[in-house]
Write a structure and sequence with these properties.
The complex is a heterotrimer of chains A (about 290), B (about 325) and C (about 400). Chain A is mostly helical and about 290 residues long. Helix content of chain A is about 75%, strand content about 5%. In chain A, a hairpin with a 2-residue loop joins strand 1 and strand 2. Chain A is globular and about 60 Å long. The radius of gyration of chain C is 22 Å and the shape is globular. The relative contact order of chain C is 0.12. The chains are: A mainly alpha (about 290), B mainly alpha (about 325), C alpha/beta (about 400). Chains in contact: A-B, A-C, B-C.
Chain lengths: ~290, ~325, ~400
């Protein structure tokens, strides 16, 4: 029982990270119409920026988080404006190629500038709490709670504010949004920024638990794709639910079945899922 | 261009390809040429499904890997000769392509690349972890080169030297080009292009899109397997990474930078990009940064690749002359 | 096409032409050492550590005015190419280094890459300097290979003996890395451990290249109540594993496969006591012999006082020193077979270049190419390192197949 509970909590914590990364990815998907492969790399840059704020400049953890969030928001807007905008009227594969090129550029720039060393910044609290035979560190609670709050806030922002509904309209139906008098090129930039900032927050939250290095983006990006497929690409609720489902599923498979074939099983199931429901679990049928 | 001139050009081209090893003695450049040949076959295979049927198959690199492992294992574990293992390996790849193509091709639009990427990742992990058969993370080693061919009265052709492998690969590239060219110029090729243009319309016109897509997918995996099989025997060793979707990305880059939907485009891309990547080594740690930038800028300014760029330039000159 | 397109196209062609046309060709007075290793991606840190050692040896010899071979002075240069641990790239890189840059020796640190090179090196006449503890490299009969690090079996037995005889551990949970190296290591360990009467409670390979969090795996491992855990990635992921195991309430010890370094792990755990009860290789900084001390001093002079040298750098450094000494002894920069003979010649240990610089005071090089060196182990108890203990390295661990 203790082990099952421990496993579930491990899964929820992993799911929180996945949900945030996938949420950002799904927002950007609405803009680009292709999955943004650079997302994992931006997640990595978010972690580095927090690292420099916290370790090099001695900023408190939460300040580091906000600095990283703001800078990655700006980077997101810039990337959309400079790199991706010229490709909206081009074949979709072209954006895909650009993303692959951008990964090479960003990851290897990080490697050349900051070196291959693993880095880490300290958690705001090192406490370990023991409840019902389950061990959980304060940082893991912070991850779970912050992620939940943040996802809720993004939800409120999209549903309750004018800017939010404009963003939703743009990402779901750009032509309609244009007719409604929405400045879609503005909205695209802002959405890209928000999506990227979410990845940064996810990275800073798990920063004290994981290691920071230039190739760290690869570890989350694969799963994040899986999640937005399950969730139905472009679906907000799908990304969040998908994140938690995959987080818990991965942990359960690892703990109870095999950790050797986890990926083969999960990705194999996905192919089957797509064969049965070609637009994902929560996606609208064609 | 009339037929005579075309044939002449082709003849000269073949002659050049035949005499290249007489001039390039450097083992390293010959190696690069052999690798380019392998990349050309794989790029052409991806181009068949992407450029003519409009389906971005991100598992193409994995099929390359399946062909490589199948050929390698048939040689090593079953003791087959390369000449038997290669066609069997390709057939096996095509069979797996057919079986996996059926479910994945049901998906449409952006879901197809994603479905095939998932397929590729799943198969990659099976290869990487199935120790007893594939050697797992350790990989396969000591795969033999093709057996010598004995020609009565003339002697034997051995494939130990890089130059002989160059001729073998060139021959296979030639076969691939001929087959794919026949395929796309025949009627079914026109139907495929109709699918790429507008699948719903094609369906409404009574074209069985699913059947055409599956056939095209299967044939393209056959050639990906061919490239993989040659790679296995030439390199002598395999790693699961050869079946990773990064290999698919490399093929895709070759196709896109060269020019998708043409025969010559993927060939140019598959020669140009690996050479560029090699020649940028002098940049040290910044090599891949510059490589990435070149990719982005190429696709920015030449959205239809190098061939697309040349075509527009030629058309412009033609227009100017016309005026 | 827009004008930008034209210009860009010309630029692209220009880059290609310029770069293919101009490359530094080694002249007759240069000895080229080729290195193909992971310089980007997840293994980049490991690759850079090795590169620092290689570069240091090369620079040192050049500063002394170069290497005199058969009455002629040579400069030495190192050319490093990235292969991201991929065999196909390693082989391509080696062909480039050998045929285009004129290298007679290729340094490579992955068993996959080394096996790939072993298929071609005798035919294309170059020496492989293998950075691996994998035994197959030296027992396959390849005549042009020499291997720097000690044999894997020496560590396996020493760590297992220590764990059982000194700490009294019986139940071990194995969590090695999921790649070839971890697999081989844990395979040897499992056999030996069971032969000594120990129990393997569970075997969970860890893929640190993809895994983001060790909690799920550790939860599974700790459920089997082990006395100790075998861990085997590089230092930092190891440290995370240790830290998270402690958070989950584990009180036992850790057996650390030699790729991980206790002194590096120490920097990634919040409390040194977390590492209590760990067995691993002795940090280079605690090696008592003067030549190791000398190496550390030179290393810090070159790379900065805050750079702590690790064994990767020191072994790579020693290998280059040996290789250059062998060239001098053989009196040829091109005949690879003579150079190999010189490497195994007992006179090489007496040459000033080797004697003054080899941080390990290596005893000899076996006919199969394995370097027999000095190996020390260490334990971490009560928040600090114990005194180093010698790891027995009988000849058979270097020469036999296992």
């Amino acid at each position: 029982m203790g082990i099952l509970l421990q496993t579930l909590i491990n899964g929820i914590m992993l799911g929180s990270v996945y949900a945030m990364v996938a949420l950002g990815l799904t927002l950007i998907y609405g803009i680009l119409n292709v999955p943004n492969f650079v997302h994992g790399t931006l997640y990595m840059i978010g972690a580095y920026i927090a690292y420099f704020a916290i370790v090099s400049f001695g900023a408190p953890y939460w300040v580091g988080l906000i600095v990283s969030l703001i800078i990655l928001f700006a980077i997101g807007i810039l990337l959309e404006r400079i790199v991706f905008r010229p490709f909206y009227d081009k074949p979709l594969i072209n954006s895909f190629i650009v993303a692959v090129g951008l990964i090479l550029v960003l990851e290897n720039t990080a490697l050349s500038l900051w070196g291959p060393e693993f880095r880490q910044f300290a958690a705001p609290s090192d406490k370990v709490i023991k409840v019902m035979g389950v061990m959980i560190t304060a940082q893991r609670i912070i991850v779970i709670v912050t992620a939940a709050v943040l996802i809720w806030l993004v939800h409120l922002f999209i549903k309750k504010t004018r800017l939010g509904s404009a963003i939703e309209a743009t990402s779901q139906n750009p032509d309609g949004a244009l007719l409604m008098g929405i400045n879609i090129s503005h909205m695209r930039g802002i959405t890209f920024g928000i999506g990227t900032a979410l990845a940064a927050v996810a990275a800073v939250l798990v920063g004290p638990i994981l290691l920071i290095y230039p190739a760290m983006g690869h570890t989350v990006i694969g799963m994040a794709f899986v999640i937005i497929i399950i969730g139905g690409m472009g679906s907000f609720i799908g990304a969040v639910l998908g994140g938690y489902i995959i987080g818990i599923l991965e942990t359960l498979v690892t703990s109870y079945i095999t950790n050797f074939f986890t990926e083969a099983i999960i990705f194999g199931l996905l192919v089957l899922l797509l064969a049965v429901r070609p637009t994902g679990l929560f996606g609208k049928p064609h | 261009m009339d037929k005579k001139r075309k044939a002449l050009c082709l003849g000269v081209l073949i002659l050049i390809i035949l005499i290249i090893p007489l001039f390039i003695k450097d083992e390293y450049y010959l190696h690069i040429l052999v690798m380019s040949g392998i990349w050309i076959i794989s790029a052409l295979s991806l181009n068949l499904i992407l450029g003519y049927a409009g389906q971005l198959n991100l598992a193409q690199g994995t099929f390359f890997g399946i062909g490589a492992y199948a050929t390698g294992l048939l040689m090593q574990k079953m003791g087959l000769s390369f000449w038997a293992a290669l066609p069997l390996g390709c057939l096996l790849t095509a069979t797996i392509g057919f079986v996996t193509g059926l479910p994945t091709l049901r998906t449409r639009g952006h879901y197809f690349p994603i479905a095939t990427m998932c397929l590729g990742i799943a198969i990659y992990y099976v290869i990487a972890r199935w120790d007893d058969v594939t050697g797992g993370a350790r990989g396969l080693f000591g795969l033999p080169r093709p057996d010598p061919i004995v020609i009565p009265f003339l002697g034997t052709i051995s494939f130990e030297s890089t130059a002989s492998c160059y001729y073998l690969v060139s021959f296979l590239v030639f076969i691939t080009i001929v087959v794919i060219h026949r395929l796309i110029t025949s009627l079914s090729g026109k139907r495929l292009i109709a699918i790429r243009g507008n699948e719903d319309l094609a369906q409404a016109l009574g074209i069985n899109t699913m059947r055409d897509k599956v056939i095209c997918f299967t044939i393209s995996t056959f050639f990906a397997g061919l490239a993989g099989g040659v790679f296995a025997s030439y390199m002598g060793s395999l790693m699961a990474e050869n079946a990773h979707f990064v290999t698919s990305f490399e093929m895709l880059l070759n196709v896109m930078i060269g020019g998708v939907g043409t025969i010559i485009g993927p060939i140019i891309g598959a020669i140009f990009l690996p050479l560029l990547s090699e020649e940028l080594h002098f940049l040290g740690g910044w090599r891949l940064v510059v490589y990435g930038l070149i990719l982005i800028l190429t696709i920015r300014f030449l959205p239809f690749g190098i061939v697309g760029g040349i075509r527009t330039a030629l058309a412009k000159r033609h227009d100017k002359r016309g005026v | 096409m827009k004008k930008g397109g034209y210009l860009f196209f010309l630029f692209l062609m220009g880059v290609l032409i310029v770069t293919t046309g101009t490359h530094l060709r080694a002249d007759e007075n240069t000895i080229t050492i080729g290195y193909s290793g992971p310089l980007s991606g997840g293994g980049a840190k490991f690759g850079k550590n090795l590169q620092m050692g290689l570069q240091m040896a090369v620079d040192q010899v050049n500063q002394m005015g170069g290497l005199e071979v058969a009455g002629k002075k040579y400069q030495v240069r190192l050319i490093s190419l990235d292969d991201q641990f991929q065999t196909a790239l390693t082989v391509s890189n080696a062909k480039r280094l050998v045929h285009k840059e004129g290298a007679k020796m290729i340094f490579n640190p992955s068993s996959g890459g080394i096996f790939g090179l072993m298929a071609i090196n005798e035919k294309e006449k170059f020496i492989i300097c293998a950075y691996t503890t994998n035994q197959v490299c030296v027992t396959s009969g390849n005549k042009l290979i020499f291997r720097g690090p000690p044999a894997m079996m020496a560590y396996v037995q020493a760590w297992a003996n220590r764990a059982m005889d000194k700490f009294g551990w019986k139940k071990c949970a194995m969590m090695p890395d999921a790649y070839d190296y971890g697999k081989l290591w844990s395979g040897l360990f499992e056999k030996y451990w069971q032969k000594k009467g120990g129990v393997i409670t569970t075997h969970i390979p860890v893929d640190f290249m993809k895994l983001s969090d060790y909690y799920p795996l550790l939860t599974k491992a700790l459920a089997t109540n082990p006395d100790c855990i075998l861990i085997g990635s590089s230092s930092e992921p190891n440290a995370m594993q240790v830290k998270q195991a402690r958070e989950l309430g584990f009180r036992g010890g850790f057996i650390v496969i030699e790729r991980g370094k206790l002194e590096e792990m120490l920097q990634f755990v919040p409390d040194p006591n977390m590492l209590n009860g760990s067995i691993g290789t002795c940090p280079l900084i605690f090696y008592p012999n003067p030549s190791a001390k000398k190496f550390i001093k030179k290393f810090k002079e070159k790379y900065g006082a805050d750079q702590v040298p690790v064994h990767e750098s020191a072994i790579a450094y020693a290998n280059i020193i040996y290789y250059l000494a062998a060239i001098k002894l053989a009196g040829t920069t091109t005949d690879v077979y003579k150079i190999m003979d010189a490497l195994k010649d007992p006179r090489i240990q007496k040459m000033p270049l080797v004697k003054e610089n080899d941080p390990y005071e290596n005893e000899k090089i076996f006919p199969n190419g394995a370097v027999k060196g000095r190996v020390l182990g260490v334990e971490f108890v009560n928040g600090k390192f114990s005194d180093p203990f010698p790891v027995p390295t009988p000849d058979w661990v270097y020469t036999e197949k296992y």
